[in-house]
Amino acid sequence: MNTLPKPGSHDGWRILRSDAGRLWATRERPFDRAAEMAGACRTVDADDLGQLQAEITRQERIAGTLVPEGKGAAEA
Prior knowledge:
The protein is α+β, with helices and mostly antiparallel strands. Helices cover 28% and strands 18% of the residues. It is elongated and about 35 Å long.
């Protein structure tokens, strides 16, 4: 696919295509320290939009599985 996604289709992430044609996504707001320590990456790349969407989803899942500081598991 040669086009970039519609604006808003990946809320919170900016999508761009490199001169070499590779797709990149960078999160507009950094993950918190705990998410980064768990392995969430703010910038990811892929060969096509499907792979890029999967990678964005994976990063958000990594960050989303964490319990926010100061909250118990029942509150999260």
